[in-house]
Amino acid sequence: MTERIILAGxxxxxxxxxxxxxxxxxxxxxxxxxxxxxYTAYSGMLPGWLAGNYQASDLMxxxxxxxxKASTKLVIADIVGIDADARTMHLSSGECMxxxxxxxATGGETxxxxxxxxxxxxxxxxxxxxxxAKWSAFATQAQQRGTADVVVVGGGAAGVELAFGIDAALRxxxxxxxxxxxxxxxxxxxxxxxxxxxxxxxAISQRNINVHFAQGTGTAEGLSLSNGAFLRADCVVAxxxxxxxxxxxxxxxxxTANGFVQVGADxxxxxxxxxxxxxDVIERTDRKVEHSGVHAVKAGPVLAANIRASVEGKGxxxxxxxxxTLYLLAHGKRQAILSWGPFVTAGKWxxxxxxxxxxxxxxxxxxxxx
Length: 370
Ligand SMILES: Cc1cc2nc3c(=O)[nH]c(=O)nc-3n(C[C@H](O)[C@H](O)[C@H](O)COP(=O)(O)OP(=O)(O)OC[C@H]3O[C@@H](n4cnc5c(N)ncnc54)[C@H](O)[C@@H]3O)c2cc1C
Known about the structure:
- With 370 residues, the protein is of the alpha/beta class.
- It folds into 2 domains: 3-36 and 77-108 and 244-321, FAD/NAD(P)-binding domain, CATH 3.50.50; 111-241, FAD/NAD(P)-binding domain.
- The chain contains 8 helices and 25 strands.
- The longest helix is centred in the last third of the chain and has 20 residues, at 293-312.
- The protein is globular.
- The mean pLDDT is 95.
- Bound molecules: flavin-adenine dinucleotide (FAD).
């Protein structure tokens, strides 16, 4: 019997599944990749694009040739619902697709709850391809005006790297800019060693970036802070962490109160084992694994192995994260900080290492090398 397999989402976690299918046939299956956009952006290079180290095309992976090599039909649409019991997926096009086996890696969406009153000034970092287009338009306007007040909301690694990238971008086009970073103090680079925060704080003080440890609430003119201050803004970049897409909670899948799909170490839904999931869309029931590109990428080969195991009737692999996760935080022009548990160092060589890893990742999933 032919099994119908759907990969939902063409981001970090599913790239190695497609590469696996391109390398080794999976007999007696029909396969689809349903995803919002033909291109997937490698988000780790986005701050480097802002800083002028990369062209936009350097961080984009074209899913069409990769899917073709994997003998997988590419369907460009948003998934708007899943019925886990009926094994159906509902698309924005109105189409309803039926599957025997599915894998979910649709990532998270930026949490904008406190910021919606900003209207057109609000620029969410995801989807990354939309961010690239909207930031480019904003930077052109800012260059014509000669000034720009930009606020980045979110003190995680992404928010910090974006603030450095934006500062570099506005300096490059000779704009008189005020760049601010807003984050509650307890979430400023949470999970990283104190030395990382110290290095970042030093780098921030050498740039034109103001840090405000507070909660921000959007208004039509800018950001009202919980410490009583007000930041006027032409543009507010939201890097406020990812939350689950709302349709997951209505899917019948076991989900957390926040709507993330609950999976075990085998990356199978604890309620519907014929649905696997990885990346920012999940919460593990057996241990805490943070939402990050590193874990999404490393889960990919386990997804590939377990999809194959389902088809071939074999046993599952499990994904066990290492004790520490390696993060390389870019700050400004060709400088980066290495954060690996208690080990922290910085310099140009860290940036060169990051550059090599990031470019290598994108190259691995472009058609010729896949
Ligand atoms: C600026 C920035 C920098 C970052 N830097 C790092 C870093 O250096 N290191 C690190 O570990 N992590 C980093 N991250 C986090 C990392 O990007 C995410 O953790 C990672 O992308 C999650 O992978 P994923 O496969 O779950 O989802 P994604 O890679 O986000 O992929 C989701 C895919 O699903 C598609 N999709 C979304 N919704 C739907 C839908 N409804 N229907 C169909 N398709 C859909 C999207 O188009 C996309 O193809 C960064 C994030 C940002 C924003």
